[in-house]
Structures are given as C-alpha cells and as structure tokens.
Design brief:
Number of strands: 13
Oligomer: single chain
Number of helices: 16
CATH class of the largest domain: Alpha Beta
Largest sheet: 7 strands, parallel
Order of helices and strands: EHEEHHEEHHEHEHHEHEHEHEHEHEHHH
CATH topology of the largest domain: Rossmann fold
Strand order of the largest sheet: 3-2-1-4-5-6-7
Radius of gyration: 22 Å
Structural class: alpha/beta
C-alpha cells in the first residue's frame, strides 16, 4: 500500500525538511506534495509535485501567500494513495485530495499548531491587523481540519500540550530525527584554516551556536560567560552578527565569533566547550541533542523541548531563570557531567529511533 507525504513547502535547509527526508526513506513509494519546492535537489523530480502557488510570485512571500493556503490544501486534485501523512507546522494538515484518496486515513505529524493564529505571542506576524481580523474563522477551520486526522503525533510533550488546547486533540509524541551518529563519530576532518582557528580559541569556553536572530537569545550566552568569568564562543550567522562583533571588540578575549561553521568545525566546538548554552524556548531543539552526541554538557531552559532531552544534573542543567546568579551556578554544576552520559542520552533521539517509531505509527 502506498501513500502520499504532504509538506508545507520544501526549502534547502531546515529541521522540518530533514524530517521529510526521513519520511521519504521510510516510505520509498510515497509521493511528496508541497505548496512549492525550493529544494529541487533533495528528491527525484518525479517524486515531488507542487500546487498552483508555485507558479506565482507568492512562493517568495509566505505572509502574502497565507490567505490562499487553506483553500489550496483543500483542492489538491486527484490521487489514488492509500493514506496521507501530513508534515504540518501551518496548514498542511488541511490536505484533501479528490478521487480515490478523498476519504483515506490521514496522519498528521505536527511541529506546532499555526503560530500565526494560535500563538501570536510567538510570532509577530500574527499580530498584524489583517491577520488578527482573520483569526476567529481560521481557528474554527483549523480545529475542524485537525479533527479529520485518524491520528496525530507531535514532536514533543511541549507541543502535545499545545495541541490539546488549540486543536482539542490528543496526540502521541514522536521526537524528530537527529543525526546522532554524524556527531558522535569522527566523519569529516578540519581544514588547515579551521585547525588554525581552533588553536586561536581559548582552551576553556562556553558555546552558543545557532542562527544569530533575537529569539535564540545568544546574548544570554554572553551573560553566562561574564557571570562565570569564562570566555564565550558564538558560532553561526545572521542579522545580529554586527551586534555580537561589537561585543567582541568592546571586551577583547571574552567573546569570539566563528562565522558559519562547517559540520566538522561545529562538532569540534561542541567537543571542546565547557558547556553548550541553549537559552531559546524551542518546540524541540535539535542542537542540544547534537551537542550531547559529542559528549558535551548542555545548559538549557527548563521550558520547551530541551527540557525533554537534557537530563538535569546528568547531561546538563535546566534553568528557570537565566540571570547571572543562576548561570554562574549552572556553569559550576556542568563540570560534573560525564561525556558518556551525554552521548548515551543523545542516542535515544537518533534517526533510527524516529524511523522505527514512525513505521510503527503509520499502520494503514
């Protein structure tokens, strides 16, 4: 029996796209349907089909395309698949085909309910006057579409609780796949320039690594370093790069910037750091698991998905508050974390675990 995998849109990079890659591997005969495909090299061209939105300028403007998405998902054309698996963080779970697939079982793998309409405090785009006017009817429609699913799986307990409120649906938790083997192993080596860069960094440092955007709160990694009198390395890139470069200039030796690290370099930073500091409140949070896969200790928020992966006192420290006093204590506590405990914990979120759980869940 073959199915169809439905995903919002395909991009060159992204955690959700990595999930779709795994789904495509688990179900090799399943076609893939998305609003548009901006990652043509990820899958065979004859496996992915797009909607009419792909032929318009709206594919470059997700906010402008938003009003058209619910209706588009309801008119996907004829299909004869035996089941539908929706990879949804916005409206993909609205998917409906005509023809033989009109009434087949629908499964929804949910990263979140749409932040635009259910959680505008988490997404400023949901606070625009136009979106706010559309919220009441969109909520009714969105909840009704969620009730069509035979079964729903959420990416974390954190999201599971959210779906109980927004969609009024129960779900089981299937954690997203993490490339644990890739970080726990020794695949890939540093270039000569990367070796030189590593040699210039402090022997002991706290690491903050992610996109340089406000909600990742990398400023709190700098606060942790100052509180514990430990240098900080910030790895990544994004709009806040000039701000972090300014911090590095103001107090030389306390903040070091590693721009856009390769996989091998990021893995080495994880391995060498005193702790990986992850202040962001994420629905799951892949990078803390990557860090643990290398043996690193993690300091993370006690709210959000990281609280489900990091074991307080064993693989790191979970904080209710990221003030200087709590951060200083956290840095002291992570010194007792054993690398083997972190690695063992990370394996529980490996790709192989995801594939097994997903294959058990989809049973048409």
């Amino acid at each position: 029996m073959s199915g169809v995998i439905v995903h919002e849109w395909l991009e060159p990079h992204g955690g959700a796209e990595k999930v779709v890659e795994q789904l495509a591997r688990i179900f090799p005969d399943a076609a893939i349907k998305s609003l548009w495909n901006d990652a043509p090299d990820r899958f065979a061209a004859d496996r992915v089909s797009e909607t009419w939105l792909a032929k318009t300028p709206l594919r470059r403007h997700k906010g402008a395309a938003l009003p058209f998405m619910p209706t588009t998902w309801r008119h996907l054309g004829d299909d004869d698949s035996d089941w539908i698996l929706c990879s949804s963080h916005l409206f993909a779970h609205h998917a409906r085909f005509s023809g033989p697939s009109r009434h087949v079982d629908k499964y929804v793998y949910a990263y979140t309910s749409a932040r635009y309409i259910w959680h505008p405090e988490l997404d400023s785009r949901g606070q625009s006057p136009l979106v706010r006017m559309a919220v009441p009817p969109l909520k009714r429609i969105d909840r009704a579409r969620a009730k069509e699913a035979k079964s729903i799986a959420s990416i974390s307990v954190f999201v599971q609780e959210r779906l109980k409120v927004s969609w009024q649906r129960e779900s089981e938790v299937i954690y997203p796949p993490v490339e644990v083997e890739r970080f726990a192993g020794d695949a890939g080596s540093l270039s000569a320039a990367e070796e030189e860069l590593i040699a210039m960094l402090p022997e002991t440092f706290l690491l903050g690594a992610s996109r340089f955007i406000p909600y990742k709160r990398l400023d709190l990694v700098v606060t942790a370093g100052r509180a514990a009198d430990v240098p900080v390395v910030l790895a990544g890139d994004g709009p806040l790069l000039p701000q972090f470069e300014s911090m590095a200039r103001e107090k030389p030796g306390t903040v070091h910037i590693v721009k856009s690290p390769s996989h091998a370099l990021l893995r080495e930073l994880y391995r060498r750091c005193l702790a990986y500091v992850f202040p962001a409140v994420e629905d799951f949070g892949i990078m803390p698991v990557e860090a643990m896969a290398t043996g690193a200790a993690v300091i993370a928020s006690a709210v959000g998905g990281a609280a489900e992966t990091v074991v307080d006192g064993e693989t790191g420290v979970l904080l209710d508050a990221f003030d200087e006093r709590h951060l200083r204590r956290a840095v002291d506590r992570v010194e007792s974390v054993r690398a083997e405990d972190s690695v063992a914990r990370a394996w529980k979120f490996d790709e192989s675990v995801f594939r097994r759980r997903m294959a058990e869940w989809i049973r048409p």
